[in-house]
Amino acid sequence: MFSQIAALVQRAATMIPVPDAGEPQSVFDDAPNQFPLTGPPTNRRRINGIVIHCSATPEGRDIDASTIDRWHRNQGWNEIGYHIVIRLDGTIERGRPDARRGAHVRHHNRNTLGIVYIGGVAADGRTPKDTRTAAQKATLRRVIDEYRAKYPGAFVKGHRDFPGVAKACPSFSAEEEYGG
User: Fold this and answer.
1) For residue 101, what pLDDT is reported?
2) What are the catalytic residues?
């Protein structure tokens, strides 16, 4: 019996394609989950939207996903509300797993994924400004393209594009730039 199971496992292993050890196959390959995430994932989510946010931090001030996680926990949340964080140098850091409902747009989290780029306000810390670096723009485009391939028909909106939101976030028109 054991030898039959071993033979099945060996045969199955030869059927699974192994990616090249070179380049990552996905924009997310080098972005491991960083947090002890709480609660079970919601595997039955039907993603129909991608929501772009800014961290509302001053231009040039880099922060990481663990900082945002701390901010959100201090507000009483279980964990970081976003799925993806894009740092100033274009590095991706994972927040919540995609299978888990986010906490990024009130009443619109069930079927959306939240991406936040670091920045979004001028150096004064108050004035909304598109502060995305060239690296952030390139990474954001790759993330959106990959999500759209995975979730065909998903819309792209900025946080500000939802009813009842009185914020400038993400400080640019995501619908115009990424085709809604």
Assistant:
1) 86
2) 53, 82, 159, 167, 169
